[in-house]
Every structure is written in structure tokens, then in C-alpha cells.
Amino acid sequence: MSIYQQLLQRESEQAPIKVGVIGAGQMGFGMIAQISKIPGMSVTGICDVNIDAAEKAGNFYNSQAVRKEAMVITNDYREVIQSPNVEVIVDATGVPEVGANISLEALRSKKHLVLLNVEVDITIGSIMYQMFTNAGLVYTGSAGDEPAATLELYEFAKTMGFEVLVAGKGKNNPFIPTSNPDVCAEEAKRKHMSAHMLAAFQDGTKTMAEMNLLSNATGLVPDKVGMNGVEANVETVADKLNLKENGGILDSFGVVEYVNGLAPGVFVIVKSDLEPVDEELRYLKVGKGPHYTLYRPYHLASLETPITIAKAVLQHDSSIHPLGAPISETVAVAKRDIQAGESIDGIGGYTVRGVLETHEDMKKNGHIPIGLISGKIVAKKDIKLGQFLTLDDVELDPTTTVWKLRSLQDQLFPSATTKGSLVK
């Protein structure tokens, strides 16, 4: 039975999936609105630090939904998670520390967790997925976000027996590595989105984090630190993302990548060593070969999240999750000169951006996952623009939940233990 048919059945039984949403910003609001038209699903809890935003989302939902459910509207995430009228939680905050606290509370309250928070998943996803699984709960990233949308194509290709050479996404925003909330404030206001979120898009952190999550879910790795970021379209991308000896830019296959010119879509580049299959792909006009691009020209972000909600509750399955120990990491890099004694903020802020590298490179170089730049972080010495941060440069905040969970992850996944541990 399809998910849609299962939802229709829940609707006919008047037993809708009861959803609690933490974060009523652009993504959360859109998803809440969408659920008002989905059979067999209801929003029964909304939390946002800005209570007005939570109330606005709740009022809109109730103005559109045929069925009216009792709804918790609050600025305390625990009230939504602990509500007996909520069975699955959606984290739409995008903040690692907030996500860490939501994850722990959902686990304690025995609620499935759907993440629209890639940032926390790439920091502590290995340990949280293991803990939720051990508790008989679903921990999952969201359909519609680029990592899960790309994973769908990846598994589609692998199911047909193709070799996947490259998997990735089109970048939606111009790359401005020094962007900050002031730089993009006017554009963010026009787009009705958080300036911090837009800054994280522009400075590349979001793209790095998304491909980090895809790497952790597939085993594919970045071809080089920060990936290549070529300009290409559907017709040219397979040629450009070829090995150097074949006229491309890659050192190896089996990689994640982002491409300027393919937004807002996602893609995989595949091949088959079987001549009859290769011949049929050419006949079907998939490409000229020997490498073929499978392309989805859109991703619908939080509007697809209800598919993952239903999958978690009805099928006890995820849309995307880590394979095990981290495979790649998004590490902190200074996006301006930082003076000794200066406070350092996190994702989408004024001081650091994220850059993707393999977990092994992070260990070897002692770099710091950007999700751990949380709480009270102060520079111990001068840090130059473009410098990768290490523990010689900053002192992490051991009072944060994300630090505590990451330290536990490092202990439980030996391959995730850094040389000169991040935890001191």
C-alpha cells in the first residue's frame, strides 16, 4: 500500500498522524500550511522562540484545515514534544544547539524525529540515529531537502545496477564566502527569510552541510576540500565531472559535488559496463555516453517533509540517515580576520563559514566541525581570513548539549575520535 493510500486510511479511521513542529520560520510555516491539505495528518503542536510566529502559523493552519485538532502553541519546545497529542516531531530550526536539545527531548519522550536541520545532523547524526534506532524510534532527514532528494536518485540508479560516479546538487545562491547577516539583510527581507539563513546559503555553509549529509548516507566523499563547484548544465555536467585524464576536473569518482547552473535540481552521474545497457541508454536519449546524468529539476524543500513524516509513522522508515560513523565533516573556516579575545559566532553569522572535507582529513588536521561553534566561543589568538579553526585557535564550550553529544559520539564511534580530541 502506498503512503498516500495509508494516509487515506488514517483519514477514514479519523486517526490522523499528529505532528509537532519546532520552528515556524519560512520552512516550518510552509510545511504547516501544506499539512492542512493532507489527508490523515494534523498539526497538533507548534513552537517558535517568537511566539507571534507560532501563533501566526497556528492561526493560518486552523483557517485552512477541515479538521480542527487541539493544538499546543508555545515558545517552549518541551511543551510540544511532551504533549500526549503529538506523536512525531519536526525540527525546522536549523540551529545545531537547539537541534541537539530537541533530539534529546524527543528521544526521552519516545517521539519519532524528522529533521529539517541538516546542521545538527552532520554534527551528531551518527550517535542520534543509533540511539533512536535502539529505542525503536525513527530518526530521519527530510524528503525535499537536497540530500534526501539526491539519495532518491542515487538509490534509483543503484537499484537498476548502475555505478554511481557522482551525486550532488545545483547551488541555488551565488557563492559569497564573506557574506554575513548585514550583507544580505535587504535580500533576506524581500524573500521573507532569516538573514542568518541566507548568509549560510551565500557563504557556502548550507551547500557544504547538505553534501556532508549525502556523503554520510552514501559513503561518497568530496573530490577535494570544499568540492569543485563547476559551472555546467544538464548536457555538459557529465563531461565536466569526469576524471582529469578524460578532460574533466575530478581526481576520482565516487564523490559528492555541487554545480552552479543546475539549481534548484539534484543529479547523479552513472555508467554501465554492459554494452546492451549502454546502447539502450543512448537509444532512450539519456545522453551520449559513456556517462549519463539522471536529473531531477526541482526539490520542494519543506513541502515534501510530510512524506517523510508519513514514512516514519506509517512505515517506520527514514528518508535519509547516516550509515554509521561520520564519513565527511563540515569544518569551521574564518570568513574574516578575527582578533584574540573576540567572540566567535556560528553558522550564518559574522565570523566563520563551513567547508566540506573527509572525516579523516578533519582528524589529521585537527579541524573543528562548524556545528560545535556554539555557545560561548572566544578566539585564543589572532585568526586570519581563510584559516581553518583548530583547538589551538579557540576553546569550545563544554556546557552546550551539542558538545556533550558530539563527545559521546567520538567515544562510541572510534573512527570518529580525533587526534588531540576535540573534547578536553
Question: Short description, anyone?
Answer:
The protein is an alpha/beta fold.
Task: Explain what you see.
- This protein starts with a helix and ends in a 12-residue tail after the last helix.
- The strands form 4 sheets. The protein has a 6-stranded parallel β-sheet with strand order 3-2-1-4-5-6, sandwiched between helices. Strands 7, 8, 9, 10, 11 and 12 form a 6-stranded mixed β-sheet that branches. A two-stranded antiparallel sheet has the order 13-14.
- Helix content is 36%, strand content 17%.
- It contains 15 helices and 16 strands.
- Strand 1 (17-22), helix 2 and strand 2 (41-47) form a beta-alpha-beta unit.
- With 424 residues, it is an alpha/beta fold.
- Mean pLDDT is 95; it is low at 416-424.
Write the layout of secondary structure elements.
Blueprint: H1 3-12, E1 17-22, H2 26-35, E2 41-47, H3 51-64, E3 72-74, H4 77-81, E4 88-91, H5 96-108, E5 112-115, H6 118-134, E6 139-141, H7 146-159, E7 163-170, H8 185-190, H9 195-202, H10 205-218, E8 221-222, E9 230-231, H11 237-240, E10 255-260, E11 266-271, H12 275-283, E12 292-296, H13 305-315, E13 328-334, E14 352-358, H14 359-365, E15 378-379, E16 394-395, H15 401-412
Parallel strand pairs: 1-2, 1-4, 2-3, 4-5, 5-6, 7-10, 8-10, 9-10
Antiparallel strand pairs: 7-11, 11-12, 13-14, 15-16
Helix pairs in contact: 2-3, 5-6, 5-15, 6-10, 6-15, 7-10
